Recover the amino acids of this structure.
């Protein structure tokens, strides 16, 4: 996976590109770090360019959500389509992280 | 582990076995004296290749200091035989007066590790011997560590597999309760996070559970052990899939770290009504293969287990009839991360299964579907694979 972060004031958009799987665990730590470290209070994780996600990838999103909550921030998912949408629908992740 | 002070102490004394091979007695003595002065206390000598090979065969030294030009058997031949005939990877430090570049290259081609020029420079010789002896020591300690780890992983794998029911044990529960079961489980990278279980509920009913913990390897396997204990301890409401799965989810929420979770499918079969009542948390959709050739995928959507302590699961059911089959599988059977277009849909799984099962009994089904789905057998190891096929009898 690759990711890009655009921060505008209170809001940060994190675009995840490629696949989000077990092998991206190390890289995703960077995402989590910027979520907790940056000034932005509202985080949008954009999955429009995420081609595929596995159970570990879902776990990473849950982890990001949890870490954000602990420092009083909110996480939302956006651009949920294709394979990602299928996995999200099956696992009801939307009940844990709001989808916009 | 070795004492960290070990190296420092060894500056003064090193009992690595060093075999010095040279046809000139004066050269042997010179090299021996230099090494002894540097603290090497376990030095042996050979005066030609033949004697050297005999000593190496008897017991492999930790390092060879080898001359090239010798009667009977030269240094090139010794290198070759040590590497090819004996298959040893001990460091060979060649000391030679050869100046021509081509010949020096040949020394390495024959299997030498390093080269020191004659006449011997004492400090260069000591430095090189130390480097290679240390390198070998590290390598052998790494190898020991690796083989111990592999051994432990094998033990853990055996323990994990012992948690699962064999087909015989499963059949002893399901046969009297109106169903046959065949299963297959294969962990990825030696250890996995898949787990399935069957328990008798009463004379007519049994429960069938399939769980896939996120991740794989050691962490997932440890969680699988904890999950197993949890499953065994949740003896209430086993006849109520939605309630029981909710209890399992709340308990998993307490023990799993936030980024870990599980998918699960739990069903109760009643032989009196041939009804399969089930609840699911994001499991791959089981496929019902009807006796008349039709098929349907069960709705297996539902909240992941272990993410929240108040998850409510929907109670669902499907009416089965004699001869109908239900296929449960972990996502490893259908997901293809290299090429997502190749991932199998529930319909694909059903069609493949129907072909395999046409006119046959279910005994060798797991082996046959694996053979069909995985063209490249190494692909199977990517994730834990569980396949369970149940037939209403």
């Amino acid at each position: 996976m690759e990711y890009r972060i655009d921060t505008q004031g209170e809001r940060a958009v994190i675009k995840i590109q490629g696949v989000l799987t077990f092998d991206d665990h190390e890289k995703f730590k960077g995402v989590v770090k910027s979520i907790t470290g940056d000034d932005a209070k509202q985080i949008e994780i954009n999955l429009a360019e995420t081609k595929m996600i596995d159970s570990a990838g879902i776990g990473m999103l849950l982890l990001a959500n949890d870490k954000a909550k602990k420092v009083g921030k909110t996480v939302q998912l956006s651009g949920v389509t294709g394979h990602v949408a299928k996995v999200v629908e099956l696992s009801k992740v939307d009940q844990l992280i709001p989808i916009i | 582990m070795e004492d960290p002070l070990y190296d420092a102490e060894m500056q003064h004394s090193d009992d690595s076995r060093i075999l010095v091979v040279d046809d000139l007695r004066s050269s042997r003595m010179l090299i021996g004296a230099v090494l002894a002065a540097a603290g090497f206390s376990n030095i042996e000598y050979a005066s030609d290749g033949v004697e050297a090979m005999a000593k190496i065969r008897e017991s492999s030294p930790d390092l060879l200091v080898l001359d090239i030009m010798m009667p009977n058997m030269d240094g090139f031949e010794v290198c070759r035989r040590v590497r090819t005939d004996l298959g040893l990877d001990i460091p060979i430090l060649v000391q030679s007066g050869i100046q021509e570049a081509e010949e020096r290259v040949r020394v390495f081609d024959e299997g030498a590790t390093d080269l020191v020029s004659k006449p011997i420079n004492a400090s260069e010789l000591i430095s090189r011997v130390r480097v290679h002896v240390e390198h070998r020591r590290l390598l052998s300690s790494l190898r020991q560590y690796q083989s111990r780890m592999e051994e432990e992983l094998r033990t853990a794998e055996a323990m994990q597999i012992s948690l699962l029911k064999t087909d015989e044990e499963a059949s002893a529960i399901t046969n009297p309760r109106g169903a046959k079961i065949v299963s297959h489980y294969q962990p990825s990278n030696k250890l996995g996070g898949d787990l399935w279980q069957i328990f008798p509920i009463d004379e007519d009913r049994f429960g069938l559970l399939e769980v896939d913990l996120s991740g794989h390897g050691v962490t997932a396997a440890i969680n699988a052990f904890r999950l197993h204990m949890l499953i065994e301890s949740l003896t209430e409401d086993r006849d109520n899939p939605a309630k029981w799965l909710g209890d399992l989810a709340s308990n998993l929420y307490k023990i799993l770290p936030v980024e870990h979770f599980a998918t699960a499918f739990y069903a109760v079969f009643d032989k009196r009504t041939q009804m399969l009542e089930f609840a699911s948390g994001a499991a791959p959709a089981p496929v019902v293969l009807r006796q008349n050739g039709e098929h349907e995928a069960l709705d297996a959507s539902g909240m992941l287990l272990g993410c929240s302590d108040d998850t409510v699961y929907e109670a669902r059911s499907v009416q089965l009839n004699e001869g109908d089959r239900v296929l449960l599988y972990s996502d490893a059977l259908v997901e293809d991360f290299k090429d997502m277009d190749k991932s199998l849909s529930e319909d694909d799984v059903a069609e493949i299964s129907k072909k395999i099962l046409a006119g046959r009994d279910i005994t060798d089904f797991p082996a046959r579907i694996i053979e069909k789905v995985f063209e490249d057998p190494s692909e199977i190891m990517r994730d834990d694979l569980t396949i369970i096929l149940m037939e209403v009898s």
In short: The CA atoms of residues 42 and 74 of chain A lie 5 Å apart. Chain A has a mean pLDDT of 89. The first strand of chain A starts at residue 2 and ends at 8. Chain A touches chain B through 22 residues (CB under 8 Å).
